[in-house]
Amino acid sequence: MRLRAEYRIGPELKFLANLDMMNVIGRTLRRAAIPYALSEGFNPHIKLSLGTVLPVGLWGEKEYFDLELTMPVETASFIVAMNNAFPSAITIKNCIPIDNRTPSLMKVINSASYTFKLCSGGINLDSWREEFLSRKSLVVKSRGKKKDLDKDLRPGIFRIDVNNSQDFDIINMWVSSGETINVRYDELNDILMATGIDKQNIQDVYRSGNYIKHGAEFFSPLEQVN
Amino acid sequence: MSHIGGKILYGLVNETSNHLIERVFAPWPDMEDIMRKERIPLFSLESFRPLTDFDVVGFSLQYELSITNVLNMLDMAGIPVWSEDRDEKYPLVIAGGPVVFNPEPYADFFDAFLIGDGEEVLLEFLDCYDQNQDIPRQDLLIKLAQIEGVYVPSLYTVEYNADNTFRAIEPRYPEVPTRVKKRVIKSLDTAYYPDKPILPYMEIIHDRAVLEVMRGCQRGCRFCHAGIVYRPVRERSIDTLKRQARAQLENTGYEEISLASLSTLDYTGVNKLVKELVEEYGDKGIGVSLPSLRVDAFSIDLANEVQKVRKTTLTLAPEAGTQRLRDVINKNVTDEQLFRAVEAAFKSGWLSVKLYFMIGLPSETLEDLDGILELLQKVKAIGDNYARKPVEVRASLASFVPKAHTPFQWYAQDSSAEVEEKQHHMMKSRKKRIKVSFHDSQTSYLEGVMARGDRQLSKAIFRAWSKGCKFDGWSEYFRSDWWAEAMQESGIDPDFYTHRSRSYDEVFPWDFIDIGVNKDFLQRENEKALQVTTSPDCRVEGCSGCGICPNFEVDLDIRGAN
Ligand code: SF4
User: Fold this and answer.
1) Do domains A2-101 and A109-219 have the same CATH topology?
2) In whole angstroms, how far apart are CA B449 and each of A150, B67, B404, B412, B445?
3) pLDDT computed for residue B187 by the predictor
4) What does the pLDDT read at residue B33?
5) Where are the extended beta strands (E) located within B248-390?
6) What distance in angstroms lies between residue B550's CA and the mean position of ligand 1's atoms?
């Protein structure tokens, strides 16, 4: 049996690297006595796969993993058992059984949203947004493997929402991830600086979601499983 | 984070007493820079409180050269490093661990040393502190000094002879004991052991469930400090160990169980325990690991049993290159056994072996060094004969450091120049495709100074730290030039401690620490070394009279076989 789970990993654990996260989930599965399946071979490991890597330094509101089990388990009891065994900063929010043929998270997740929380009273975000989206290109120095090459982020930025509240401002950006254009959050950060957001004003950054984008629509990996 | 002793004491205090214990580690120098710049005093990991908020600050001294880190940590915490500069408003600074069996070089920095098995004495120490918080520090120290296993250095005067050798150490108060007896747990089987160790998020060294299958080792290798000071052997029963394994796995979710001790393959129940653990946990993908292997084919069979997984590097420690020298050091291993072990290993799929040796052992000649190279070559030939691919053979060569309380405590240690000459000789005659690596000779030399040092060294330690020495065990930080200056400015000739052979009638600064094993026994063992005669394991062939059992009214506690 295969399961797909959606979880939140809170700010307390934002410095965990991907491998540490795999370890935390693995150890939690053992503590919770979940009948996880193991791979064959000399060095068997739990058949567990995570979605796109959550960058070190960010926490995540909706992250995903797929897990293979040796026997059927009720999703509700899976959630309870895991949440009892997880450290308090990690919580499974939702979980569904998926088909053996369902493509992996890595294959289907093609976009993500990042949320920047700013001190209020900075620049006017509505006009900033308008100006930002009107640009034809937004070039940054690439941060990933092809370091320091010019990279145009504009085609990979799908949507921006801004929100002013009394205490803080929010910028929410939907961007492309994966194969075609991979917009990294540190590059987004650079672009925000370059367009007039003051670095000092950024209080928090987190990944608010991972999506499967079809045309103009964003689906959660729990909605689109085939 | 990985140290078992620390986990034991942490759990013991927090789970079984009314006291509270928190952790603090030496920050890496980049972190230290920031903390000093921002004026953040060194604080505990649990409550973020500065160390000055605690009543007692304890260090586990695992390695002689960590002393500069101790001074640095105290200084970062705003605690004076010299014990005489600390009054009631500062915490008591104490230490335990293998290094404190010769506490004298560090005596002026600590208020007290806890000698022997920590879990046996720590709570008693803390209770006594708790009940006497309001009395003057000096009176408190006198009370603490009366607890068996506690050494309070400031309550003793030390005298030296005209030639600078040690004459005597005398208590300054009648209530304070003349000899400090180490503490020993009689039954490890019933001793506290943590079922719920702290589970770190980030990967640490030895990131797995650890079972301490036994304490002590009675093989009697004559160079080995731990083998003498942790006598007698005390085992846990298989039932206890399986229960502890279950509890730790349930609480942590670890994917591996490691069987720890000085010589795990000598645990009498090792075969049965390994089989049963593999049976119980194997299908959950939880593996069993053995930290060290003995040089024999049985070890390899057992390793095969547990390492159904990856066959990485096999490590074995023959320690010396010729039979003669192995007999001198009482490493009871024959060439035959070694060859059979590697043959078994290569046949069963291992492709890489690492062998540990020491250079500078008593009575060593060039022949013994060449013997190491020949041995390596034979191992390589066996490998190429039996393995499916060319094998990798590596040798790691440490410099022998004579340690206090061992049969070799009377010997002169090689100077750095002598060690380097030997290294050079070996590199010259080394064969291709065999990698040989050496420990840094300067580090071993300084370790040697501390290992048999006395109280006069504290000035030099302080000076070295003041010059910036810290993380001396890390080659990128170790500054032998600063240490040399510090010694010179303190009027200390380090060769006096290392490069000098001692006579049997010399009194040693560590003689007053009663480890249970008689000095006569050490001397007898040394005599046997000179005659190239071995001594058997007292578990197998009867008591060889080291003295611990009658002296401390303890006994070998062998439980694995039942
Ligand atoms: S006193 Fe005898 S039996 Fe006890 S540890 Fe020493 S040699 Fe072994």
Assistant:
1) yes
2) 58, 13, 11, 11, 6
3) 95
4) 98
5) 256-260, 287-289, 313-319, 352-359
6) 8
B267 inside domain: yes
CA distances from A145 to A149, B238, B344 (A): 10, 52, 45
Mean pLDDT of chain A: 92
CB of B556 sitting under 6 A from ligand 1: yes
CATH class in words for A2-101: alpha beta
- For the question of an ipTM over 0.90, the answer is no
Q: Among B230, B519, B537, B548, which is best to mutate for testing ligand 1, by the most ligand atoms less than 8 A from CB?
A: B548
Is A13–B201 a contact, with Cβ atoms under 8 angstroms apart? yes
Backbone angles phi, psi at B57, to 5 degrees: -120, 120
The architecture in CATH of the region A109-219 reads 2-Layer Sandwich (3.30)
Give B120 Cα–ligand 1 centroid separation in angstroms.
21
> Could you tell me the two tokens for A56?
């070190």
CATH number for B250: 3.80.30.20
Q: Whose CA is nearest to atom 3 of ligand 1?
A: B543
Q: How far apart, in whole angstroms, are the C-alpha atoms of residue B316 and residue A158?
A: 60
Go through chain B and tell me how many residues it has.
562
Q: Can you give the residue range of the structural domain that contains B408?
A: 209-439+516-548
- Do residues B95 and B59 make contact, with C-beta atoms less than 8 angstroms apart? yes
pLDDT at position B309 is: 47
**Which residues on chain B are in Cβ contact (under 8 Å) with A38?**
284-285
Going by the DSSP 8-state scheme, the letter that residue B53 receives in this structure is G
pLDDT 10s digits, B333-387: 899 899 988 898 888 888 889 999 999 999 999 999 999 999 999 999 999 898 8
Domain assignments of chain A as residue spans, ordered by start? 2-101, 109-219
Crossing angle, helix B118-131 and helix B137-145, to 10 degrees? 150
Residue B113 structure tokens = 């040393």
Count other Cβ atoms within 10 Å, centred on residue B534. 15
Tell me how many domains chain B contains.
Answer: 1
Pocket lining: B535 vs ligand 1, CB cutoff 6 Å: no
pLDDT at B295 over 70: yes
Tens of pLDDT, residue by residue over A103-130, are 999 999 999 999 999 988 778 889 999 9
Burial category of B300 from C-beta neighbours within 10 Å (exposed 0-12, middle 13-18, buried 19 and up): buried
CA atoms within 13 A on the CB side of A212: 16
For every residue of B485-503, DSSP letters joined together read HHHHHTT--HHHHHS----
d(CA B214, CA B201): 28
Which residues, 6 or more positions from B28, have their beta carbon under 8 angstroms from its beta carbon? none
